[in-house]
Every structure is written in C-alpha cells, then in structure tokens.
Amino acid sequence: MTTVKIGIVGLGRLGQGHAKNLAFNIPNCELYGACSPVVSELEWAQRALGVTKTYTDYADMVADPKIEAIFIASPSGFHCQQIKLAMTYGKHVFSEKPIGLDLAEIEETLAVIAAHPQQIFMLGFMRRYDESYQYAKGLVEAGELGELTLIRSYGIDPSEGLESFVKFAGASNSGGLFADMSIHDIDLVRWFTNQEVATVWAIGKNAAYPELDGVGELETGAAMLQLTDKTMGILVAGRNCQHGYHVETELIGTKGMLRIAQIPEKNLVTVMNQDGVVRPCSQNFPERFKQAFINETKEFVRCILAKEQPKVTGNDGLQATKVAIACQTSYEGQTLVKVEL
Amino acid sequence: MTTVKIGIVGLGRLGQGHAKNLAFNIPNCELYGACSPVVSELEWAQRALGVTKTYTDYADMVADPKIEAIFIASPSGFHCQQIKLAMTYGKHVFSEKPIGLDLAEIEETLAVIAAHPQQIFMLGFMRRYDESYQYAKGLVEAGELGELTLIRSYGIDPSEGLESFVKFAGASNSGGLFADMSIHDIDLVRWFTNQEVATVWAIGKNAAYPELDGVGELETGAAMLQLTDKTMGILVAGRNCQHGYHVETELIGTKGMLRIAQIPEKNLVTVMNQDGVVRPCSQNFPERFKQAFINETKEFVRCILAKEQPKVTGNDGLQATKVAIACQTSYEGQTLVKVEL
Amino acid sequence: MTTVKIGIVGLGRLGQGHAKNLAFNIPNCELYGACSPVVSELEWAQRALGVTKTYTDYADMVADPKIEAIFIASPSGFHCQQIKLAMTYGKHVFSEKPIGLDLAEIEETLAVIAAHPQQIFMLGFMRRYDESYQYAKGLVEAGELGELTLIRSYGIDPSEGLESFVKFAGASNSGGLFADMSIHDIDLVRWFTNQEVATVWAIGKNAAYPELDGVGELETGAAMLQLTDKTMGILVAGRNCQHGYHVETELIGTKGMLRIAQIPEKNLVTVMNQDGVVRPCSQNFPERFKQAFINETKEFVRCILAKEQPKVTGNDGLQATKVAIACQTSYEGQTLVKVEL
Amino acid sequence: MTTVKIGIVGLGRLGQGHAKNLAFNIPNCELYGACSPVVSELEWAQRALGVTKTYTDYADMVADPKIEAIFIASPSGFHCQQIKLAMTYGKHVFSEKPIGLDLAEIEETLAVIAAHPQQIFMLGFMRRYDESYQYAKGLVEAGELGELTLIRSYGIDPSEGLESFVKFAGASNSGGLFADMSIHDIDLVRWFTNQEVATVWAIGKNAAYPELDGVGELETGAAMLQLTDKTMGILVAGRNCQHGYHVETELIGTKGMLRIAQIPEKNLVTVMNQDGVVRPCSQNFPERFKQAFINETKEFVRCILAKEQPKVTGNDGLQATKVAIACQTSYEGQTLVKVEL
C-alpha cells in the first residue's frame, strides 16, 4: 500500500489536532514535515508525533521534494498565499476554512487551483463529513424530505470562551460573527440545497457584554437568507452557549422535517437527578467533530491516491465567504443585501 | 357561589369547542345563550349542551338582560362590530383572535373598550394559558434565562388540511399566511420579551403546490423581526406539517436557552418499532391546546368575578395584527418593513 | 340533564383532591355531602367547595336518602367495611385503592358487591384513565406490539418524602413497599396482559437509610413476576427518586416495544443551561395523574348514569392485593412464592 | 515508536472487524499474521489488509517468533486451549468473550495465565470501552449517583437474525440465551457495582416462535439477580428487537439514576414525518460498538507497551460465565439458584 507524505503548516490548537490525526489516525499517510514559527511547537511535533523534518519557513517546506501534500492550518490571513505557493510547487493541498478573507484574493487563488487540475485541493468544511450530517444528506438525496423549503442552522460557541473573546475583541480581527461562526452553516445551506444565496438580512444583539457594540462584534446574531429558488435559510450564531457547543441544523421539506443535533448530545447517557432529566452535551468543536476531522482527512488521502477531486471545492469556499461578508454588510448597514452570484 | 351567565356567538368548529367547555368544564359559569345563523347548530346547543336560549340575530342576544358576558367565536370579519355592540350593552366580552382585520377598525374598537373600563375584555391568545408556556414564562420572569436575545416561534399546520386549503385558496381571504398562522407567534414574541416589533423581513416558498403563487398564498413562510431593544425574532409558519401540528417556541437568553415543544409530543408514550424510536405527535390545535382553551376561559370567568382585567388586552390584538400585516407587506414587496409603533 | 348527588368520606390529601374534582371538574355530579372525623376539614368542604351537608359519622352519611353515591378516600383499613355498608344502603360506590388489606375481608366485600349488581362499584386504579396509558392500551389492543412477552413497571416516590417516612416507618403499617407502591404497577401488569401472576420473587436494598432494615421497610425493591402464560413482569418500587415522581411502564411484544413516561416529563419544556439539556419532571402523583383522577371520576359518574359497570372491578383489587402480599412474603422469606389463583 | 506485531486467529464476521481495526485503526501495532482454516479468508487478509504471513494451523502461528501478541476471535469452544498455548509460547493474548464454556476448563486457563504474569492478558468485554459506558462509570466513581441499589441491563438482538436463528436453533449450541446474550450485561453489573452475583432467578417466553420451547432456546428472557451486598440486578435478553440492536443499562443510586442508551440512537438525527418524530437506531453490534472495539484494542496495545495488565481480567470472564450458567440452570429448573462464589 502506498503512503502519502504530508507536511503541515500551523500547529495551534486546531493544527495540533490535525497533526495528531495525520500521525496516528489516518491510514496510508505519513506526517513527514511540520512548519511553524514557534520552535516549541516543532519540538513537540518531533517528540510526540515522530515528525521527520521541521521547518520555520513555509517556503522551505513546500520546496521539499519528499513532501507530496500540504495541510494548511495556519491563521486565516495566510491561507490564500500558502495555497498558491503549494499549488505552484506541485503539491496536493488541504486548507482549513476559510479559504481566505478577501474576495479578490480568493478568486485569484481559485484560478491557480484551476490551473493545476491534477493536484487535489480540498477545503476543511468538516461538518459535511460528520456521520449525522452524512446520514441527513443521504435522506435528502433519497427524497425522504421531498423538496426542501427551509433550512435553519445554528452555530453557538460555549460561554466559557466569551470573556476572553470580549477582552481581545477589538484586536481579534475575526471578520465579525458571521464570517467567524456562520461560515460552516452557510456551507451547509449550500450543500443541502444545491442553491446559492441571493439576498440576506442580518441582525444581532449584545446583552451580556454591551461593550461589544463599540468594537463591531456580536454575542448573538441571526441572518435570514433567500436562496435563488426561494428556499429560505435561517442562521443563528453566537458566542454564549451555557450548555456547551450548540451546532444544529434543521431541514424542512414538503414530505418531512429533519434535525441534526437538536440536542447536542455528548454521548448516549441520560442522568436523572435533582436538576431533572439531563442530557450532557458536547462542550466544544474538537469534541463534537472529532470523528468528522478524521473522516475529512481520510477523504483527502483517499482522493490523492484515487486521483479524484473531493466534493468540497475552492468555489465552495468562495461562495460561503461571499455570503458571510454580505451578512456582515447587512448587519452593519441595517439593510437587505443582495449577494452577487 | 356566583355563576356568570354567558352567551356565545359562532358555533363553527372552534365555537363548538368553546361552547362545550363553557357548558361542562368551567366552574362558576352557565352557558345560557347561543347565537348562530345556522339553525341546526342552535338545535345542537340546546340538545347537547342544555343551552336555555338561542338567537339567530346577534342583536337579540346582546340585548338579553339575563346575559352578563358574550363569548365571540364568529368569523374574524365580525369581531370588531360584535365587540363594540356587546360593550355598548354593558356586557363582558371574550373575543377569539384576531381582534380584527383592519387597523382603523381595531383602533376604533379599542376606544369603545377603553370607554367601558368596568367591563372585562379578553382576547383569545390561548397559548399564553398553556401549562408549558406558563412554565416557560415563569422561568423567564425568574431570570433563569438571563436577558433574552432571540426568540424563535413556529406554527405549522398539519398537511392533511393543505389540499383543501389549496382548493379554496383564492376565495379564502385568510389575510395571508402571517396573519392567519403567525399571529399567535407574534403575540408570544411580545409576551415573552415585553418589547414591540420594529422591523420585519418576510419570505416564503411554495413547493408542494406552486399554484399558490398565483393567489398570493404560502405553504411555508419565514419572517425575521428586529424588536425595539434589538432582541431578534424568527417566525416560521406553514400549512404542510407531515407529523401533525408543530407549534414550537425557543427562547435564547444570556444565561440559557429554552424550548417549548421542540417535539410536539402527543403524550408520554414512546413507541419502538420498525420505523425506529417514535414519539407520536399532537395532530391539531384542539388536541394540542385543549387544556389551554379551558384555562383561558376559566381566567375570563375568574376576572369577571374578581373584577380584574385579564393580562391579554385589546392592545395585544392590535399590535400583533400590525406586525402580521407588516410581514405580509414585506413578503409581497420583497423589502424590509418598519412597523409603526 | 341529571345530576348525581355524591358524598365523600375522607378529606386527607388525596380526599381533598377528589373533593375538589367532584365540586368543580366533573359534569353531571354534585358534591352534596362530606364525612370526616376532623371538623376543620368539614368546615373547609362547606366554605371552599359549597358542600350542602357534613357528617362526622359515616353511618349518618350512608343513611342519608339524598345521597346516591359514596366516594371513599378514607384510610385503607376502613375501605372494606365502608364499601359494604354503602352497598347495603343501596349506594353506588367508588373506593380508593387498595380495596382492603386482608384477603378474607376483601373476598367478603366482593360478595356484598356481587349481591348488588344494580349498583355501580369502581376501584381507584386511576392510572388506567391516564391519557398516555389509555393510548398505550389502544395500541396493544390494536395489535401494534404483537403478543406481549414482558412488561416492566416502575413506581418511585420523590425523595423529599423519604426522611419523614423513615421517621415514622415503624408505626406506618404501610403493608410494605410492594403493597404500598407496587399495587398500581401490578394492576397495570394484569390490565395490559389479561393474565394473572403465577410466581414472584422480590428483593430489596436499603442504602440511604439502612435503619429501615430493622423495621421491615424498603427504600428500593424489585420483583420479578411470571404470569400464567409465561409473560414476564418486572417491578421496581422505591421511595427515593431525586428527579421527582417516576412512574414508568414498558411493554415488550413480538412486533415492538413501547414505553410510557420513560422520562416523567413535567410538560413540553426543555431547558438548556449549565447543567446540560434538562427536562423538568413531574414531582408527585397529584401532578402526574391530575387529569387521570378527573377522568376516572367522570367515568364513575358516566357509569352511574348509563347503568353500566366500570371496567375496573372489585376482583382487580383482590388480585392486585394478592400479588402484593406474595411479593412481601417473597421478600421476607427470600424465596419464590406461588400466587394462589 | 515501537510497534507490536500481532497475529489474529479467526476471520469470521467478528474476526474480520478486529483484523481491519488492527490493520488500519490502531496506532503502534502491525497485523503481521492471520490464522484460519478457510483459505479464502487468508487470501482476503493478505490482499485487503496487507498481512505478511498466514497460517492454517494455529500451532504454527503461536510458534512464530516474529509474533508478540495473539488476538483470538475464533469460535468460543477454542478460546481456552488457544489462550493456554499462546501463553505457553510467551505471547500476549487478547481473547474475545466468552473466555470459555466450561467452568473447569476456564479455571485451568486462569491458572496458566496466572503463571505468566509478565504477559498481558485481556478479555473482549468491549462495552466497558464504549465512550458512553466510560462516562457513566466515571460518574459512578465520582459518587454522582450515591450508592448503587439497582442495575438493569438489556441486550436485545435485531429481529432480522431471528428467523435464521430459529432454523438452526437445535444445532447452534449457543449455551442458551443468557450465556449467549446476557454475558456482557452480567459483566456490566459486576463492573459497575464491584460486587458478585449471589442468587438468580431466570424466566423466559417464546411467543413469535413457540417451536423454540422444544430446543431449549428463548426469544426473550429475563433474570433477576441479588448481589452479595443486596444490590439488585435485572437482565433482559432477547433476539427479537424490531427497531434494531437494543443495549441499554440503567443505574439507580441513592443520589440519582442514569441510563445509557435508553434509546439506541444511531446518530444525532431526528426525523419528523408521517410516522411521528423518529430517532433512527443502531442496527447491530458492529455499528453500536464500532468505536468500543477500536478503544479496547488500543488499550490492549497500550498495556503491552506500558507493561501494565488491563482492568478486564480472566477472572471477569470466569465470574460472568458462572452467572450465565446459573441463569440457564434457573430457567431450566424453574427455581432460585445460588451462584457459588
């Protein structure tokens, strides 16, 4: 059996999770290289993951002929240039979301990707690879719900991160709540409906931390989307979920409705105590999407070996970013915004 | 113990339910009179409910000095004039929702009500008297959810009525999906938040019966509301619920979330069979709100005896109608609509 | 419409609930008389319920020719003699469970009942009249579960009463956990299966209050039952439920399974907070079976007016008591016990 | 990093699952060898799993010095002798449950294991490694439920296998329902309570296939267990679950109750359609315990590398088998059976 040699860039919280998967949980691949400006992270990669080679300069890693594929888990602002460089060097590329922050730069990057059709490119919309989302997609495609008329998707981060977010909010450059949190939900809307978003209205409210108003950030926001075929979309995003990490998606069709994680059940345990009957919940995205992260990476490696492009494309990244920006524009301008197709 | 003598007008499906409650399930009241243009309905009221007196002319019933209170369950177009007449004759009045269809006429009616402050007036927003909604309201007022930031409310009618609705859609004069279905949800938004609706955007899609496009009706619609303090509201209304009658309300606050009937459970039974694990569901509003209809009528009688105005006022009817009309206007005009306060 | 004049005996906690229902919630009946040795309870009945006549001596009430039916909610030790006396005086009788504590006395009482076939006799196995149990029974009779092979039924009282129970345990003469708590579950086993119990084994454990061992009482007990056709029965009874009042019944059949109240949901509300996703629970039997108590009394009155014997018979009381006694015997003797049919 | 070379014996349905895990999903191990009398299975292991060496004779595999650990997934009747041989050859051993069918032979095997304390021995009670069971065990050990008083555990196989089971029932030599199905539940009872089983009573009923009576097999059975400290145990086992694979465990303690998989949810999806609100269910043990199988094997490899004995011991296998045999004896003899400690 062939093994794909992979180099990862970015060893922050998310990058470390990916690196561990590449080292231990994905068949047919070897985590050969790791790149980070932080030397202690590189030492960790060698010691804990058995990485062969480390780089402080990304240009060195992409130039290494031993490496066949690049796994990008660096800060969002670097994604576009790192994708382009890796593509130019003939590497397969997996990039975490978002593909980029600036529409022009994303389009330029898509052009580079398009110019290298033999190389695999995949974007990290991992929710599509979660077993529950896969099961739901299967039911939709089998026609079990009839024609979809409405999709509602929530992404609400646990409260425990909120205080720290507020502290650094002015400096975070998160792109705003919709770009930061809803981008996965927007991708799901497009994936389930096979439609593009035409018009959006976004609103929000800061109640626990009204000071967020001053820095243009939101605790909780909502957006309503009208898709090209009039299918309706509803997004709720937030940073203040007391019960953990609430990612939920609802599909309404002419033949039935379906909900994914209407309760974000941690496991199959129900506790009955003085609080009532309690379902413990997933507490964060690494817990909730642990298996989805593994599945998407297995798919990336499978696609490389099978010489087959994955179903998540660069264009998916472009469209989701467009809609997220439209939501932010709508929220700031207090007006309906049409999304340019 | 005193007994309140009541006369009911309107003995259609909803009226018959009210009449049975008044006759059998409400202490301290007597269903003395019944008014309907349909003679067979009056005969039924005498035979099955033991009503003492029947009237084919509403003017005769309100003029009857034996009757202390009028219960209005006639078609919506008659509500305003019947309320005004009853008020003028010194009667207490319970009116089914909506209080009226035309804003000017509603305001005129409110003026008449205001001119008779000794007489009880109550509007039939029965959901407020459902035990689950009462329990939720109690938690909100006790601060269990912190400050509310978002409220989502669904009202989706069972599919079994859809075909017939489509057949008569052109002639139904329902006022549109939002006036017809969402008015209860709008009342809940106002009740839970103690805020008014400032701006709305409403959209919709006809998929099972595209011919509804031609008559300005909707199978499924959604509206997003911005309230005066920026609290967010999301409404979904529909006429095509396969699993029964789906009325659900969600509250998101800074300290927690709460859902009323996220599954519209029929009772406490769970069936496990070849379909999986199944919760049977409420099939229609008389089933789901059976006890709420009784509770609101008990409250009406209690208020009469205690000489105390109920918490559901005529103004609640006016404001909910304003918002429903704004949603319809927004849907038709494909634009944001500000609600005049 | 005819009205049945009823006299109630026993105005303790359960009796008061029945008295309120008879006074306010049951059509076609009048709570005419009330009997209690406690004068303040009689005063309450006059003042709050509008009872016409009160008695401190039961013999006076049953002799009153105005009274057509007797409602027995006195302590269990009085049931048999009160039933017999009322029957002898030509009254219809509703008796709370258990029909009696001593098998010979119960059989004697059944003979008296049998000697007055024109008078209605009904026993208070109210769970049969709960809407969820009714719904389940309907599915069983429609064959939805196939042939039943196993039934499991739990009755666990809320913890809040346990400390007080322990304090008075030696003096309580409860008849033991199985007679006190499982008798309803035993009735359900017989009702759902249409079979009698042939053999039982009962065990128990005191952990929170080991001192209960000394007085022959149990915190938590379990019994396994083999029915005449080999259908299996499992009972769990207890006095230490932290989440409220847990009454649950499971049916396993050849075509499916069914559970009634696998979560004793208080209402349709789900709360999501720092504890996780929480379903609030019913806290006690008056809450859980509020409507069942009304339904059984409506049925009693309906049967009187329709001259029709109810489906809950005196024999149901006899058989359930037999099985409860067999469980207690088994627990004490640490052995299998055959129930005499 | 070190890699453990493993040889597997038995490539039936369960063995193939283990072999795939060893080949692809377990870090730090290599599936080096495979043994089966079926040549096509060995060819599959070479082709699909990349196994280096295959054996038709188990004696050859255990003698191979390259192999450090043996993974036994052969028919139950071979377990004891294969464990003993592998131990004698100095190998670490993982054996599927049951450890054996005959108590004397199991005790002899335990003696051999005890004579090789440097070699790891682990038994395949995989449920202990399921995340939900692990989470529950953690809560119990943290005292969240107080002292346990009752544990109920169900193991019911999907109906789809029943017809074929009935066909071959006479020849299957399953050891009976309790040895075949309840052995995992018995292990859970011992694991959660840290107690042994003292006395059992087991009953059963054949309703869908009464012909099973003739061959001493059961569709559905139940057993009640009294543990040494009076903790109660309830087991239900069956072969006729219409909704899939129902494995459920309930713990009742003085401070709370807990249920693992009271609904055997397949994933996080809820479907709402004409059947009601439906949770799709796990359909079989490979689906339900997919991750648990991986986790137990990871633990086996970790124990080898860490030179640490796993918490599942040979004695766990012996005790569970004793109790299963006692249940079968009780069922056949229609009597209480004491388990020899």
What labels describe this entry?
homotetramer, 341 residues, alpha/beta, Rossmann fold, Dihydrodipicolinate Reductase, domain 2, 2 domains, seven-stranded mixed β-sheet, 15 strands, 26% strand, globular
Structural commentary:
- The structure is a homotetramer of 341-residue chains.
- Chain A is of the alpha/beta class and 341 residues long.
- Chain A folds into two domains: 4-119, Rossmann fold, CATH 3.40.50; 128-284 and 319-338, 2-Layer Sandwich (Dihydrodipicolinate Reductase, domain 2), CATH 3.30.360.10.
- Helices cover 38% and strands 26% of the residues of chain A.
- Chain A contains twelve helices and 15 strands.
- Chain A has helices spanning 13-25, 39-49, 58-63, 79-88, 103-114, 131-141, 162-167, 169-172, 177-193, 285-288, 290-306, 314-333, and strands at 4-9, 29-35, 53-55, 69-72, 92-95, 121-123, 148-158, 197-205, 220-227, 232-241, 246-253, 257-260, 269-273, 276-279, 337-338.
- Chain A has a seven-stranded mixed β-sheet. Chain A has a six-stranded parallel β-sheet with strand order 3-2-1-4-5-6, with helices on both faces. In chain A, strands 13-14 form a two-stranded antiparallel ribbon.
- In chain A, α5 (103-114) links the parallel β5 (92-95) and β6 (121-123).
- The termini of chain A are far apart.
- Chains B and C meet through α1, α6, β12 and β13 of B and α1, α6, β12 and β13 of C.
